[in-house]
Every structure is written in structure tokens, then in C-alpha cells.
């Protein structure tokens, strides 16, 4: 491809509204352009990278016996109403009405559509298992689109869905897909981890996220420093023994704590450690209010609260709701003498507290010498807190460390979550109607491009891995008005193309400095400069990733290029 014939609008200055390096470089190198907030056009160079990512995904999905389909992006509300997600998915679901006042959604995900398709077509266990995938645009009305392709309102996604007659069959496919995802992200050259995760609005159990390690990641990964254990911090289990103090149990006493509201303020005022304080929070679990307790130096994990309470949606109660419920401010909350209708859940660490401190549900007062189960009732003790760095790893090997990650893939065991709601059944081997057992497997394809861009860059621009680079070779004649350089450049362009290399020829009448700066910015792995030594058949070569430079003879070009891409 001749550079003069394609569209690569590079920028010298960094766009002011681009916060992260991948976004800045994708704009500066002319790979993407913003249409509006969270919505982007892929320009020719960006599209080539995107297509190469798609190709790797397709190859690995087909190797995993997943078959490609293409489902509608416009989905009727009735399907989402069958599962209840029309009401529970939230404001991210883009909804619209047609001229006949029928309600639709722009596809944020396709569980309902694929389930409705299979319930109409697959009636016997003999047709199972079946694994279908697609690569298609998705739409989510993000409240705060940011970081370019990493969090947008329209994005490209690969989503796959498997249907099974037995849980054992689902387990087998889940492992196959786990390996397929590992193969995909390995081939893309990414530094990633597969981590235990929460299923969120999708539903189901047993799921893993694939996280690309990056300081700009919005997710925190908790991993063991001595084993392969890794989990999203929301799902990282706390598996610790909390030794109980041998001190004598004292009688509870109310004390004045004027203007002391936070755990830090109360512990300092009463001269006790935060470990002896009991933090009290009120959550709304579906339609019920519950009280959740943790040790003062721990943070309550709302995902674990959701699982412990069995709720579909859990959120913090507002100050107004707390005031109406308990007639006190949040800074004075405690579990003593609560209304009988309010369930109390406590983190495991609370059980070991002896003579602790907690709010008195009265402004300016706390209780001291509080002892769980003696002075207040708890419905259930459970793991309800966030893991902390330095905690013992849940698998018993090593201690927990934290890293930031960008989620690029997520796999779920959905079970019968959708098939039961949608009455999607097949006849099993005994002739009985049975709901499909399902799996779901997603990759954010456009997000993967941004994640690669984050990991493969330097101060001058991109350093794309071979597998996804927009071109393999960048030919740069320094002076297109020099007939020797121009002729040799065009000759090498045809030679490399005829040997199936992807080549970009910079045939622009630009200064050498502009050409070299653009070449570094675009980041094609191998740059071959045709300069002053062209008449001697000497080519100046640069390895874009290492910065190493050397010379090749024209006669040995094909052999050297072949060796370069074997590295």
C-alpha cells in the first residue's frame, strides 16, 4: 500500500481530552477519530489492527468448535422482559420505540436473543452441545465514557454462547473456552491473568475475567505472590483465622463521643485500636434493608454482601433512608437494639472482637465493651470484607498482592438462569422437557486494541507485536524526488508484496524528519529506509521495538526479512 493513497491523519500535538497514553497515541497516529463521547470511527490503520485481532479470535474460537453466527443488534423488549432484565439492567441499556410504539433495546449483550433462537430450533438432547459465537457492535449508555476505546458507548465485542444437556458437558466446554481465551491473549502478545470474578448483570456462577495488567486499569487484581491464585478484588476470598483476645468480657457502657463520626476519629477519641471498633453500614438488598458489620480497619465488599443476602441488587442506603429507618445519622450507627425486622450480617472478623466499640444509634454517643452475640444478634457471619495486601492467599500459598488490570474477556457458567425464565427446553434422553444449561463467553474486541496499545508503546509511538501490526514492513524512501531512491522503493514494495509481506510504502513528498516521526508513531515492526546509499544497494534498517539499527544489502533483503520475523 502506498502511503499517499491511504488515510493516516497523524497529529503532532497530543489531544487535550485524551487522558491515557493508548487513547493519545491512537488519535495521534491516525488509527481512530472520535465521533461523539464514547463513539469512535476506526480509520484504515486502526481497522487493520482490529481485523487482525478478529482473525486470531475467529481461529481460536473455531478450533474450540464454536460456530459463527450474526444476531440482530435491535432486540425487542419482550425478550428482555421474559428474563426481568428489562427492569433490572439499569440505565446502561439503550432503549427506543418504533413508529408503532413497540419498545426495543440496542444490544448490550445477546443472552435473550440467542436463547430465543435455540428454544425454537433445538428440541432434542441429540443436537447438544452447541457453541455459537458472533463479532458485533454492542451499545451501552455509559455514564462516564472515558479512556478512548477502553470504555465507550458503542464497541465491538465477541460473544459466544454454549448450550448443554448436562452440567458435565458445560464444565468440559468451559475448560475448552478457558484454554481458547488463553491462546487468544497469548497470541496477541499480552501480559494478562485469568482471575476469579463476579458475574454482575449477566448472572450465573463460576466465572473468570481475563485481565491485561496495566496501571490505568479500572479493576484491582488480588494475586498470590507464591501461586497461580488470582481474583478480581471484588471476588477475592478472605480465608483467615482471627484469634480471640483472652481479656475478660466487660459490661457494655454508653459513652459520649461529641463530633466523633468516623472510625479513625472514634478510635483516637477513645484511645482504642480500629481493630476493636465495629463498623456498621446499612444496605438495601432488593427491597429490604440489612445491616452489615465489619472490623473498623476493614472495608465491606458489596458484592459479597449481595451473595450473602441472596439479593439480586445491593446498594448502600442513602443518609435519608438511614435517618428514616433508625432515626440517627450514619456516623452514629451500631447494631444494638435494632428493629426486629432488620437482618444483621457480620464479617467473620467481627466474631473475634472482645470489648469492642460501636455506634449507639444516637448522635454523639457510642457503646464501649460491646461483645458480639452477647450484646447484639447476628443472623450470619460470613466473608464480607475486601481482601487486603498482606492477607494470606485463599489457597494457603503465599500472601496477597495487588495489581491493576483492564478487563478484556469474561467467561461464565450461566446454568439455567435464562433458559428457565424463557422456558427454553429440550427433550432429554428420557423424553422429559429440560431447560438448557448454558455458558457465556465474551471478549471486548475494540477494547483489546486499546489494551495492546497500552502495553506496546514507547516515548515515540507504538511498538506493535507482529501478530496485530497494521503492516509488517514500512519502506521509507528519504527523498521521492531522487529517482534512484524512488525506483528502488517501488521495486522493493512489489518484491515484498509478491512474497506475501504486508508493506506500507511512504511515497509522500515530505521531509525526512516528518517521515521518520510518523513511522515511529505508527509503529510498524520493521522500518527500511532507502537513503543516500541506495545507489550502492545498501538499506538502512530499524527494529521499531528495540530501536536497533543496522544495514542490509539489497540482494539479501528477502532472507533478512524472513529471519527478522522468525525472532
UniProtKB/TrEMBL annotation:
It is an enzyme of class 6 (ligase). It is found in: Cytoplasm. Residues 38-465 form the Aminoacyl-transfer RNA synthetases class-II family profile domain. It catalyses: tRNA(Pro) + L-proline + ATP = L-prolyl-tRNA(Pro) + AMP + diphosphate. GO terms for biological process: prolyl-tRNA aminoacylation. Its EC number is 6.1.1.15. One of its GO terms (molecular function) is proline-tRNA ligase activity. PROSITE patterns: AA_TRNA_LIGASE_II. It holds the Pfam family tRNA_edit. Keywords: Aminoacyl-tRNA synthetase, ATP-binding, Cytoplasm, Ligase, Nucleotide-binding, Protein biosynthesis. One of its GO terms (cellular component) is cytosol. It comes from the Bacteria. The keyword Magnesium does not apply. Consists of three domains: the N-terminal catalytic domain, the editing domain and the C-terminal anticodon-binding domain. HAMAP family: Pro_tRNA_synth_type1 (MF_01569). Belongs to the class-II aminoacyl-tRNA synthetase family. ProS type 1 subfamily. Catalyzes the attachment of proline to tRNA(Pro) in a two-step reaction: proline is first activated by ATP to form Pro-AMP and then transferred to the acceptor end of tRNA(Pro). As ProRS can inadvertently accommodate and process non-cognate amino acids such as alanine and cysteine, to avoid such errors it has two additional distinct editing activities against alanine. One activity is designated as 'pretransfer' editing and involves the tRNA(Pro)-independent hydrolysis of activated Ala-AMP. This is Proline--tRNA ligase. It comes from Planococcus massiliensis. The gene is proS.
